[in-house]
Amino acid sequence: MIVIGAPLGGVIATVAGTDSALWSAAAFLLLASLVLLFSRFRDARIEVQQLSDDEALIP
To answer: Does residue 56 sit within a domain?
Structure first.
């Protein structure tokens, strides 16, 4: 994300000003959090697979 976000933020800051760049960054972060909050990602679970010692040592 830094590879895309840093140049994009620089372009926005150059064209529209630093205030607009900071407000747009805040809006994008809010939008991303709302997308994650209302998506199925919120209910995602990780299944833990337990390996025996012999299985864990196999390369």
So the answer is: no
Residues 6 or more apart whose CB falls under 8 angstroms from that of 24 comprise 12, 16
The number of folded domains in the chain is 1
Distance, in Å, from the CA atom of 8 to the CA atom of 2, rounded to the nearest integer, reads 9
Are the CB atoms for 21 and 12 separated by under 8 Å?
yes
Q: Which domain holds residue 20?
A: 2-49
Phi-psi region of 22 (alpha: psi -120 to 50; beta: other; left: phi over 0): alpha
Within a domain: residue 54?
no
**DSSP-H helix ranges across 1-59:** 2-16, 18-37, 53-57
Q: What is the pLDDT of residues 37-59, one digit of tens each?
A: 999 887 877 666 776 777 767 66
